[in-house]
Amino acid sequence: MSTDYTPPKVWTWNKASGGQFANINRPIAGPTHEKELPVGRHPLQLYSLATPNGQKVTIMLEELLAAGHTGAEYDAWLIKIGEGMQFGSGFVEVNPNSKIPALLDRSGPKPIRVFESGSILVYLAEKFGAFLPKEPAARAETLSWLFWQMGSGPYLGGGFGHFYAYAPAKIEYAIDRFAMEVKRQLDVLDRQLADNEFVAGADYTIADMAIWPWYGGLVKGWQYGDSATFLSVHEYKHVNRWADQLLARPAVKRGRIVNRVQGEPHSQLHERHEASDFDTKTQDKIGKPA
Ligand SMILES: N[C@@H](CCC(=O)N[C@@H](CS)C(=O)NCC(=O)O)C(=O)O
After folding, report:
1. Residue 17 banded pLDDT, cuts 50, 70, 90
2. 132-153: string of b/e by CB count within 10 Å (b at 16+)?
3. What is the spatial order of strands in the sheet that 44-48 belongs to?
4. Ligand 1: which of 47, 98, 99 to mutate, most ligand atoms within 8 Å of CB?
5. Tens digits of per-residue pLDDT, 224-264?
6. Is the C-beta atom of 55 inside 6 A of ligand 1?
7. DSSP annotation string for 46-97
């Protein structure tokens, strides 16, 4: 791949542009094939994968169940995005944007579809009256941080992560630009967490659940090869404190392994249909390939 490029007058789809994910990237939307989605017996059907965006929702569902909201029982089905399952007709009906996570709430007379991880978090928080404060100032602060994550995350994933770890060539300009932005974002969080136990203040909220899989995962060294060293994440000591504090929560530990298809076999629960699956169906227990 050359970095010496003059754009033509009109862009055309160069299918051979290479890079990781090249096989699933397309300039058009809509389904590529007919495929119905499976449906389990619980009110909530989740179609997902344990990327940071996917983990937000499974952490929320496990937190809701831990808090006694039995109506949050769910089936988590695996969508292998590398194999293009997000382009099946059934998935596209639940999310026309063809990206995980996607949720179908079948608890009412007519199924309700919800897509975009931030929207799913708000939907569940409102449905169960949990993890989104009702008091106006605390609610505004929570939603501000939630939307901060939704706006900032793509600079971390699609910007820094893509050019540092996945692009077919290391482009200094791109890596430098996005490393600078991600370090700025980490500093934003670090300053906030210096004065607050949780991101939006004294309460643990959906803002923490949205931000932790991305920025908590980054400071824990789980993202993009050796990016933790590259970005000197140890400098953000309040982010590190908060990341460890959330990881100590049993629901967070459970939520992050649902629909996970990499890492240690005991940390992969490919599908979740019952609470007991965490004890009996992780890959170390069943040992079946994804
Ligand atoms: N803004 C969306 C982003 C979701 C997203 O980017 N999902 C990725 C995995 S993390 C995906 O499904 N990619 C498949 C594809 O792009 O075809 C959200 O927060 O739900």
Report:
1. low
2. bbeeeebeebbbebbebbbebb
3. 74-78, 44-48, 102-105, 112-115
4. 99
5. 999 999 999 999 999 999 999 999 999 999 999 999 999 99
6. no
7. EEE-SSHHHHHHHHHHHHHHHTT-GGG-EEEEE--GGGTGGGBHHHHHH-TT
Pocket test for ligand 1, best of 79, 95, 100, 116 (most atoms within 8 A of CB): 100
- Protein residue whose Cα sits closest to atom 11 of ligand 1: 99
> Tell me: the pLDDT tens digits for 174-233?
999 999 999 999 999 999 999 999 999 999 999 999 999 999 999 999 999 999 999 999
Name residue, tokens 């980490």: 186
- Span from the CA of 48 to the centroid of ligand 1 (angstroms): 10
Average pLDDT value over all residues in the chain: 96
Rounded distance from Cα 51 to ligand 1 centre (Å): 9
Which of 64, 53, 62, 174 is CA-nearest to residue 117? 53
Question: For residue 136, how far is its CA from the centre of ligand 1 (angstroms)?
Answer: 30
Distance between Cα 192 and ligand 1 center (Å): 27
Tell how far the Cα of 88 is from the centroid of ligand 1, in angstroms.
15
Question: What is the predicted pLDDT for the residue at 289?
Answer: 57
Q: Which residue has the least CA distance to atom 9 on ligand 1? A: 100
Virtual CA dihedral for 281, 286, 288, 290, nearest 10 degrees? Answer: 20
Domains of the chain, with CATH numbers?
A: 136-250 (1.20.1050.10)
Q: Is 116 in the pocket of ligand 1 (CB under 6 A)?
A: yes
Position 24 scores a pLDDT of 86
The yes-or-no verdict on residue 129 having pLDDT over 60 is yes
